Amino acid sequence: MARVLNWQIGRSMSYWYPENRPKRQFAAVFDINKCIACQTCTLACKTTWTSGKGQEYMLWNNVETKPYGFYPLAWDLKLLKMLGPQEWGRDEYLGRTIFEAAEAGERVVGWMPEPRDYAYPNVGEDDCAGRVDRGAAMQVPHPSWFFYLARICNHCTYPACLASCPRGATYKRQEDGIVLVDQKRCRGYRECTKACPYKKVFYNPMTGTSEKCIACFPKIEQGLQPQCFVNCIGKIRLAGWISTPDKAQADNPIDYLVHVKRVALPLFPQFGLEPNIYYIPPVHAPATFLRQMFGPRVEAAIRTYRAAPEDLDLAGLLGLFGSTDRVVSRWARKDDWVLAADDHGKEILRVPLREPVYVREAFDAQYQVARVNCP
Ligand code: SF4
Ligand code: SF4
Known about the structure:
By secondary structure, the protein is α+β, with helices and mostly antiparallel strands. The chain has one domain (about 1-130, about 140-280): Alpha-Beta Plaits. It is built from 10 helices and 17 strands. A 4-stranded mixed sheet has the order 10-3-12-11. The protein has a 3-stranded antiparallel sheet with strand order 13-14-15, covered by helices on one side. Strands 1-2 form a two-stranded antiparallel sheet. The structure holds iron/sulfur cluster (2 copies).
């Protein structure tokens, strides 16, 4: 085992291979508050990549309702239980990662899902935690809650799938940090499926190999955002590149959200993989639940997000989500406009800070038609 630095847990940790960060790292921010669980992302991915034989059960992108939704069943609960206590100091994780908790002879703490664990991908949809008594009036905050969690492969800096592969078939690309499975080298041992704590590697029984989200790398190579991003109805997603905290640049939109404003957080950072999909946490769910899921900074992140209406830079950047099919490498706010640029600094988009509001008359006298149902 090597010692590597994992900034998300505020310390170094054990990993199977030495630290080898790519030239740049693909990353994304998902704003949970805007997801409506329409599953358009799920279907965009399904029809693009997993419509073949042996892929019927696979959802490289899925959206589950928390706290009772899972795909596969109980993916997070099982591992949280296996990992034991997960205590944090102020910013440092004091517990053990899945690499550190592995028993002698194992590389990672993990578990293998049964085929039926994948059989109900939308289990728990819209199920609430908490209870509302019959006849009770609406309250804010409401005693019952749920939220939608959209998930893809995290293209982790320290992937458990890669660490566990005895064939060296899983690899991380130097040019963009995307994690792929070499289909020619893979022999279908499924160590990766067992090891990935997010359960984002799938076994194809027809080909006898493992398959996973590829971050739509043919699109990324052309400067385009992946399918699940550009089809997102809620405009919750922004793809880009993340730096380590010491090299963060405020004009990089992902760096700004993750490192400067600290409003976007990794999913289960205590697992130790340094995952590269970041979430703006839901403002209405209990802090204890969110702390376990996103780490100790979650309450500060929610405060920052709530203050966005007065923070014109943050509000403006959030307006870029879902506004272009291109990867935004740089951004800036100029007065009432937010500008986005590509890798070469070329402007690809500008959006107004505030959209104009048009009030349409209920009755259109010119065409003698009612424009709304109740003129
Ligand atoms: S999320 Fe899972 S499949 Fe994706 S890189 Fe991390 S360990 Fe591998
Ligand atoms: S398309 Fe967007 S809004 Fe719809 S479920 Fe997926 S992430 Fe959520």
